Amino acid sequence: MNIKLTPCIHRIKYNASKRKPSKARQTRLLLSARLKIMLADLGLTPETAGKMLHVNPRTVRYWISGKTLIPYSAYRLLRILTGSELPANGWDGWHMHSGQLWSPEGHGFKPNDSSWWGLLVRQARCFKTLADRETQLRLLAIRAGDGVSATAAASIAGAGGEADRP
Could you tell me the sign of the dihedral formed by the alpha carbons of 120, 125, 131, 137, in that order? Predict the structure, then answer.
């Protein structure tokens, strides 16, 4: 950047031919594009988003245009109020998009996918109960028959009874 000095110090002229947009402006434009896409995905207008956030619709339009930076709290509140983000602890990284619940690993779950989760948990509990019973029965059989020592039975119990499982 060249600076021309003029007789009066307050009249400094800058001869910058092409100025690159500042990082702050690039950030504002990127966040405004994200907000615009989010509002379109949710089917919201600046007016409805303004009502939800208790701000003037003109403020939302300024955020969309990139004229002003959208506060993170407003962005997150809008996502929570529309059901796009889950606010409770333990749901970090999970989000709602396009009618699906997305895991932090990128797996999408449709609403009808959750109907089998309860069944899956119950099956896992039953399999664990059966495996525990099988281990106890093996220990009792070992202790009762063939004069095997209690230390051998304890070593099988420590292995979880999986010595002869594939």
Answer: negative
| Look-up of token digits 């990284």 | 93
Q: Are 37 and 84 in contact (CB under 8 A)?
A: no
Strands (E), 7-138: 13-14, 95-97, 100-102, 108-109
Please identify which residue in the block is written with the tokens 């029965």: 137
Beta strands in the chain (DSSP E): 3-4, 13-14, 95-97, 100-102, 108-109
Confidence (pTM)? 0.46
Instruction: Give exposure, 80-115, as e/b (b: 16+ Cβ within 10 Å).
Output: eebeebbeeeeeeeebeeeeebeeeeeeeeeeeeee
- Give which of 143, 140, 136 is closest to 161, Cα–Cα: 136
138: tokens are 């093996």
Structure tokens at 135: 């281990």
Quick one: average pLDDT of 112-139? Answer: 89
- pLDDT tier at 27, thresholds 50, 70, 90: confident
